[in-house]
Amino acid sequence: MPFEITILGSNSALPTSDRNPTAQVVNLLGRFFLLDCGEGTQIQLRRNKIGFSKIKHILISHLHGDHYYGLIGLISTMNLLGIKTDLHIYAPSEIKSLIQPQLDFIKGEMTVNPIFHPLDFKKPRQIFADKKIEVISFPVKHSISTCGFLIRELPREANIRRDMVEAYKIPVAKIKEIKSGADFITPEGEVVPNKQLTWPPYKPRSYAFCTDTAFHPPIAETVQNVDILYHETTFLEDTREFATKTWHSTTTDAAAMAKLTNARKLLIGHFSARYHNLIPFEKETRAVFPNTEIAREGKTFTILSERGNRE
Amino acid sequence: MPFEITILGSNSALPTSDRNPTAQVVNLLGRFFLLDCGEGTQIQLRRNKIGFSKIKHILISHLHGDHYYGLIGLISTMNLLGIKTDLHIYAPSEIKSLIQPQLDFIKGEMTVNPIFHPLDFKKPRQIFADKKIEVISFPVKHSISTCGFLIRELPREANIRRDMVEAYKIPVAKIKEIKSGADFITPEGEVVPNKQLTWPPYKPRSYAFCTDTAFHPPIAETVQNVDILYHETTFLEDTREFATKTWHSTTTDAAAMAKLTNARKLLIGHFSARYHNLIPFEKETRAVFPNTEIAREGKTFTILSERGNRE
Fold it and tell me: Is B22 exposed, middle or buried (0-12, 13-18, 19+ CB in 10 A)?
């Protein structure tokens, strides 16, 4: 039951020699989501041994180049590899007109079929769902239209205890209602409480990705109780004036948002190229929100399954 | 008097975890030319400490993505850095329609002014010249229209010997004609031969860049006696059938072209992603043309100045 976030790029707009522009891969129950696709993402996928054919969903937060210039190269390579797939691209509507000329110029048959899904910048919206998980986009606050993304498991039913099914000879027809919370009444009239018949379900896990945003309290309404919150910290606190000017966040902003959302863990990234040493980011953020980690290239963060509903 | 070629990327279309798509920087007498601009070129420029503001001329051989997908990111970054410059882009004419939508989408004032110069795929053509150097484009033989580039110094005049000027009291008015080859006749009627009055000029140096081409003998007419020939070797000899199918070259093709052009040194690159070990490329090519080197990322090759015209 994997829930893994792999960091491919942690830097802001200007590249450095050792940090890449934004990209992350989320693997939730074998469904792979690529979050943003800065230049060089395909090489980072190779370096992290993530097969290109696994990527079926690409989520682009906004159309600053450091978040989407790697998209055409990735699609082109998937095509050269002969990967036959629908490729769902959730992004600002303008993206199609920006990369379609380059897609049209690729000679020969396209094996990849890009399907564009425009984002809504007015309110949170479910953009993907299947039986087990869902993805929500929600507006954040940047110099151009930008969305964050919440990726989470759907609530699960309780697991029925096989030993109890045997002990009480529970008929198959009753199992569905017990999973939904019903007690069981034996032919003799004994009431066996539901708690005794089931293991509590696994808690639904969740990950939120908020890049390129100023401190924006409405985010917290959408991503309450998230297991891991990724929040940008382009600047340290002593250069808050740059953050304000460019609609970005500081360490303290990210920490405050982690508190406001009641996050378990905070990941910080999107560092300005002016910083070579990232330790001060860790220090400043941990002073307010101790369970903070730096989203470094090549690191994978795992959210483990636990039984019992999270309060 | 620098003439340096720095390799930023040596790989063919599919990226590997340790090799980048094609890009090279040529510094000839302080004029910087970027040859091709695959994805990730801007990060490679950073890694090799080549300032973005030095790049005024970008030459794009053809419009397969691994040769131009890094262009938009580089221009965007130059713009973010506030570099004010004309940026001359010599490329197939279609490039403008491919990247103009993305250029138009960059908000705010563009400090970089891209000027597009369409390439000629019918015959060799001078695409740049100043007092000291020139750049020639010439068609090669690939699956789509592709050019190679020849970058060279213009022939120089002989250097006059200051000791002779003093010894014979040569008037300033005579110096120009002596530089052009004239003897000097003293007031007493003695003829001092030109050879005695001058040092031979530095030999004009030259570099040719031939990527993405099958073996194509007409190339040799344009790049005769080149100091360094870069010629692609996408495949080893035992996979010649792939080279033929995809309009690429093998080791033996590159070596044969080095002989045909009477090159001093051969650089090989554009290796297929199927090869992890490049030593067999070196071995196979050197068996035919011993002075061969592999164009590895981060390597700089220098062409030194020598006096005397090269035969």
Answer: buried
